[in-house]
Amino acid sequence: MHAAYIEQFGPPEAIRYGELPDPEPGPTDVLVAVDAVAVNNVDTFVRSGAWRTPVPLPFVVGRDLVGTVLSAGPGAHRFRPGDRVWCNSLGHDGRQGAAAERAVVPAERLYPLAPGADPLEVVAVAHGAATAHLGLFPHGRLRAGETVVVIGAAGNVGGAAVVLAARAGARVVAVAAGRDAGYCRTLGAAEAVDRDGGDLAEALRAAAPDGVGLWLDAAGVNDLGLAVDLMARRGRAVLLAGMRTRPELPVGPLYLKDCSVHGFAISHAGTAELAGAAAAINRLTAEKALSVRAVETLPLREAAAAHRRLEDGGVRGKLVLRTDT
Ligand SMILES: NC(=O)c1ccc[n+]([C@@H]2O[C@H](COP(=O)([O-])OP(=O)(O)OC[C@H]3O[C@@H](n4cnc5c(N)ncnc54)[C@H](OP(=O)(O)O)[C@@H]3O)[C@@H](O)[C@H]2O)c1
Hints:
It is built from nine helices and 16 strands. 28% of the residues lie in helices and 26% in strands.
């Protein structure tokens, strides 16, 4: 089969496109004919070795796929050949990756494509939306009626967080570039604050007069001084990006308000947590209520170029690699 793979960690150009043997499914696995795979920031971290996780070599890059079931082992009997499916947790923790014509997926990590959902939209939205779901609910413990501030609200993670939080009955204050205010409102934000519009603290205080229940930073800004200042009692700040940031934490105000700061990485999510996120994604993609702002498709053989473009910055939305072009 054709695959985009590396034989050693390295820059985007370490990715080769060529033939690898078909993968061998085990009894609880499903063999999937892959239609398309997403290109995520984390895929570049795994490929370069910046984030160390056990992977086999040669290693097929990528973690998210959409495709069709070819065969299912005896312990994976809820799937049948021909089922349309997706997965968002290959390519780390010992598992081979997704960017190939065929992939083996453990049944507990495979989800049916919702009826009516666009497969390319699902694979494009999966990583950001699952991250947003985990950040808001299991980690952020968001409740209906709370105010949630989403930093980076026009991005893949942030945009999905706006949709999911608004659907959960929270009041969403989006922080994004001024040009993205309208987009954030269409996603469900009650208020859109211009990240570059002057006094951010003042604008957020006006937008959240009763304090912030959940502060979700999907842009890696990690201004904990501002977050703690604006949080309500028992407020939570959830951090998931900005690996190199070293913000100051005002500890007194934090504990005097019973606040907390919590970080997480989706790569550590268990299969039950991932399945909870997948169910939410399936509900919303069936209604066409969840998508990334733009999907650009490229042939699988251009995986190296796609990694290079993502690393160089400026990709808005998601690059998706197709196996059929
Ligand atoms: N921890 C995890 O499990 C996990 C999972 C998924 C992703 N991530 C990380 O989360 C981050 C976001 O990923 P993504 O796919 O959503 O990226 P993305 O689509 O590029 O979104 C980032 C957004 O943040 C905006 N932004 C940049 N600086 C800002 C600021 N000062 N204030 C407000 N918004 C700002 C960007 O706007 P412009 O485009 O206008 O600059 C963009 O809309 C990445 O660092 C990624 O590696 C972590």
